[in-house]
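Changelog note: in this version the structure field was regenerated for every chain. One regenerated record is shown below for reference.
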Amino acid sequence: LETNTALLYQITHTMNSIGTQGAELGGRIALLKYGITRACHLVGDNAVQILGGRGVTRTGMGRIVETFHRFYKVPSIYGGSEEIMADLAVRMAVKGFPQEARL
């Protein structure tokens, strides 16, 4: 979570400094979206594991966890799948490498 928060602050600072149309912002935003989606996935799965059978019921003690586990995927689908966001982040990072750099 701290990594995603730091990246969010860095993106916000960059947007305030150079504007919202910077060339390097696309890759950073894609990486942030990928990281937050993965963190939500881990939180949802671990919460269901901790609560056991109650984590999948729509009423009672597990309703909040079940609702989160059902709906955290919706925003990630709207902006593109995780694989697409990770690919975009890597392509934008490689584009900034010097020509003589070897991978």
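Spot check on this record: Residues 11 and 25 are 7 Å apart (CA to CA). DSSP finds five helices and no strands in the chain.
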